[in-house]
Amino acid sequence: MDILLTGVYVVFFPGFFTVVIIGLLSSWVDRKVTARVQYRKGPPLLQPFYDVVKLLGKETILPKQGSRFMFILAPLIGFVSISIVAVILMLRPLVATSFVGDLIVVVYLLTLPSLALIIGGAASGNPLAAQGASREIKLILAYELPFLIAIALIVYKAGFKIDLQTLSATSELGTVSGIISFIIVLLCVQAKLGFVPFDIAEAETEIMSGPYIEYSGPLLSVFKITQSLMLFTLPVFMITVFWGGIQFHGWELLWFVIKYVVILVLIIVIKNTNPRVRIDQALKFFWGFCTVLAIIAFVLAVIGNTYGIAWL
Amino acid sequence: MKLDVLILLLNIFLPFAVAVLLLLIPKKVRWLHELLTLLTTLFCVAAALRFLLFASQAKFTMLLFSIGNFELAFDIGLNSLNTFMLLFATGFAFLIAMYSLKYMAAKEKRKQYYVFLLTTLGGASGVLVSNHLLVLLIFWEVVSVSLYFLITTGGKGSRAGATKTMAMIGAADGCLLLGIGFLWYLSQLLYLDAITITINNWLSILCFILMMIGAITKAGAMPFHSWIPKASEKAPASVMALLPASIDKLIGIYLLFILCTKIFVLPQGLLLTLMIIGVITIVAAVMMALVQHKLPHLLSYHAISQVGYMVLGIGTGVPLGIAGGLFHMLNHSIYKSCLFLCAGAVEHKTGTVELEKLGGLSKTMPVTFITCLIAALSISGVPLFNGFVSKWMIYQGMLSGQNAYLLIFLIAAMFGSALTLASFIKVIYSVFLGRTSTVTKKVKKDVGITMQIPMLVLALLCVLFGVWYSLPLNEFIYPATQTTPVPIGSWDSILAIILSGGGLIIGLFIYMAGRIKKKARVGETFIGGEVLKAEDIRVPGTEFYNSIQSMKPFKGIYNIQNKGALDPYNWFGRLGLAFSSILKKIHNGILPFYVFWTLLGMGVLILLFIL
Predict the structure, then answer these.
(1) Which terminus of chain B faces fewer neighbouring Cβ atoms within 10 Å, N or C?
(2) How far apart are CA B33 and CA B526, in angstroms?
(3) Given B399, B502, B510, which is nearest A155 (Cβ)?
(4) Is residue B239 classed as helix, strand or coil in its secondary structure?
């Protein structure tokens, strides 16, 4: 594959710009469904785009305290890292071998947007942002444990392979352990997205968006774009790892869209039917219930593999 | 005698000679101490660089004496393994000597500091190049003793930490000696390049475990870790950066590597033991680090936790994992000494290491902040920094074992990495970000250039080894392990940096597009419209993990740990006390009692003679 073509893939289709557009459209879906659940009309289709453009025209206010350099750099770090994940996942079907990195790289990169949010909040010198940053990092610790166990199960089922090509070739949803870990990863994704019931770090009614509180104008729009990128990339990650991956030809593409919409709707439904939990409840939920469930799934998979029971 | 051999001998003995010379030079001639130390360390770096560039295989043997088939020979030699380690050991010594110019300038025990810095360097070089185990042990002891004296340069109260360090390392060195004794009994050989022992009976297992204790205590793995936090309390930060962070790791893991790959052929069970030690060390130490309130304490718990990855990597027993373990040792020495140097810089400027009293230093100490941030990201294993690459290799080493229980270790190690990240967010927030405190308000500018250069060099190495990781792997690690393992996964860091460069440009473009019309305004922070005093708005980073600390199972464990119940130093201390209390009871000062004992003893003796 020559460099020019790869460049086009990375920047336009199916890479960066496509992902941004789909991401913003997904956030419209999110807002529309949420509005319908709450008996509101909801925004028009292009509202997320209007929001970004409008934010670009707004004034940038930098905080007097804290580190201005990190305050500006942080949103960019998050934006870059999630873009790389998006490109890795979207370009996978088009390249024969692995592109940029493997599963471990992706798992590590997926924590970076949260890290960027924490550093940005901490750099603002605002006590509420610091409070939010502290909650966000604890939330990372909470969901990372069951998340890693569920990912380890996938690695086990794939025969200790970590390249995304091998992992995307099979669907794990035909087995009990696969379904359980899928549900766990879905809950972790909810937390990674910072959606209710795990929007503890932002908690608008309590600490006024936490780490985002000092952000305004273009920097806030970078964060908004990052969020919508995550709203697309994380379900794609789930599809790649659990649900047979993406293919860009014929009916496969439609099949992928259906899978994506299913996961998106699940996320939105969870978001709209639950109240926000406290951080200690989230810790208990992830380290207790989810971890135990993930371990059970793992044990089931090992039993199934050892005794040749396919449906486990 | 060839030139290389001469240089090699000088590399070991010049530091000792200069150390003796420094003792003779009066304390007032400060510049001469500093100059001689700098020149000596610089010479050693140059020598090591020369060995590396010319792939020198210099050897030197001098038989000291022999009884029967026991030979004590001063046998040193270079190979692809110790050459690169020598370069880094000397390199760290040079950087830290440079850092010390300013850092130690006002300290009272400066002379003692420079003398033992040099003996450490000589001892470490000796350990790395000796081919005879007893010679290795002698140099090993030199490093241990130098550490004691270096810690005591911290002034008042540093002796307690030094004593604990000496007691634990001394005991471990005793184990090492005993292990070497068994090795002699088993193989009748003491030359490193000649011994190969297949572990098949209990004696060889005991021998391996004793020697392993010597190695991992030096490196600081659990359960023999507790000297590092104690020593860090009062020791100068540069001492922590030199020994527990870098040179002790280098020589400890060097010995472990030799034990596991050259001297012994390990069965699966012992490899598993090593891996369990590694995983427990990673998770337990990082959980401790999470709740520390003092910067050196926190860093030293990480120095322990990271050893876990190295032990884990070597314990996998597959080439990829072993290479990853060695690479992690190298990377850890780089970023951890950088972190300790940053902590030293902060302490130098503010006079405190309490995280609660610090904050908001990123504006006044930008260089320290950036280097500390890079080192923190490296230790947390963020991609594009060096810590990620070696961890990634270790994970793959575990995966190539193709066993379900290895995945448990993998989960624990990766979760340990997340905990490390959490703990360093606390550091970065409490020291550099957030709001200024009464202490940090007084800081006007960053530390001097001689303190900045070592930190910058180390931070640069973190990025270089992270992005262009094939360089250290192909130049240092793979020649040393004599394998070129093929990774299971893929990590194209060059492509990733191009992509992130592109992403950064797009991001900056979005940001700048919004700023074309209006300039950015600087405003006060918004706290829901409330007007609060500056002191009330500070959120200390030390409170970040209170909700984890007060969670049910952890609360109990932390309480037990705080009482010191998990520290082998205390176990043996208590054992010693119990033993001496029995002796104390016998000595009750009553004369007839002593007479009775004497008579009883005589009676026993007479009885023995009669029989």
Answers:
(1) C
(2) 53
(3) B399
(4) helix
pLDDT digits (tens, 9 = 90+) for B251-266: 999 999 988 888 888 8
Q: B56 lies in which domain range?
A: 1-266
Q: Which residues pair with A167 in a beta bridge?
A: none
Q: What is the pLDDT of residue B139?
A: 92
Cβ contact, residue pair A101, B491, below 8 Å: yes
pLDDT tens digits, B283-321? 888 888 888 888 888 999 999 999 999 999 998 888 899
Q: Is the pLDDT of residue B405 over 90?
A: no
Residues of B in contact with A118 (CB under 8 A): 425
Query: Under an 8 A CB cutoff, do A152 and B410 touch?
Result: yes
Q: Do A213 and B526 count as a contact with CB atoms less than 8 A apart?
A: yes
The number of folded domains in chain B is 2
For residue B203, being part of any structural domain is answered with: yes
pLDDT (0 to 100) of residue B45: 92
Q: Kindly report the nearest CA distance between residue B344 and chain A, in angstroms.
A: 21
Cα B98 to Cα B95: distance, rounded to the nearest angstrom: 5
Tell me, yes or no, if A9 comes closer than 8 A to chain B by beta carbon: no
B476, pLDDT greater than 60: yes
Domain end among B237, B266, B295: B266
Between CA B583 and CA B561 the distance in angstroms is 30
The reply to whether B116 falls in a domain is yes
Q: What angle do CA B204, B210, B189 make, to 5 degrees?
A: 55
Chain B positions touching A75 (Cβ under 8 A) are 507, 511
The mean pLDDT values, 10 residues at a time, for chain A of 312 residues are 77 83 91 89 90 84 81 89 89 78 89 90 85 88 92 89 84 87 92 87 80 86 90 92 82 87 91 87 90 92 87 80
Q: Where does a domain end: B266, B297, B324?
A: B266
CB of B39 within 8 Å of a chain A CB? The answer is no
User: Rounded to an integer, what distance in angstroms lies between the CA atom of residue A16 and that of residue A229?
Assistant: 9
Could you tell me if B420 and B500 are in contact, meaning their C-beta atoms sit under 8 angstroms apart? no
- A141/chain B closest Cα distance in angstroms: 7
